[in-house]
Amino acid sequence: QYSKSLKQLQRSAQALGSDDSEPLELAIQVVAEADDQALTGQLIDFLMGEVDGIPKEAKYLFRLYMSKKKYREAAKTAVIIAREEQNAGNYKHSHDLLLGMCRQLMRQQIPVPSDMSSALLLLHSYTLARICVKRGDHNTAARLLIRVSNSISKFPAHTVPILTSAVIECHRSGLKNSD
């Protein structure tokens, strides 16, 4: 009785609030096992906050799409989650999420969306730039930091340190005319 189970799990999730993720995880499992479009729609509405006015974390929507093998929708959700993490300054978590999603899409032979690959490229450049600075490879670090600096609005938590590092690395590597 998937429908009754879903309703009970939704009530439980509402009663417990955002502190307990177990009812939402179980609801995702129920909907995935039921393989019913109507139940899927009900859970999506619940996760989006259309039922109780409280949108749930995007990670649950991502997990639902992954369990239903709707990889394109999961990819869009992953980009949104990664953007939120990136805005909060959690670049490693954002990078790992996008990289994992890209790998899953490639395994399913689904083309990686361009916004996902460009977001991953930018985060990867930031990560590699930090490694290059530590190793003393100032030329590569400068070029990577120039790429990151061109999209500095996507790094709101660390704008000043990134731009400062870019200037320093460009100076060290002799790229004084780079903007």
UniProtKB/TrEMBL annotation:
Coiled coil: none annotated. InterPro entries: WDR19/dyf-2. GO terms for biological process: cilium assembly; intraciliary retrograde transport. One of its GO terms (cellular component) is intraciliary transport particle A. This is WD repeat-containing protein 19-like.
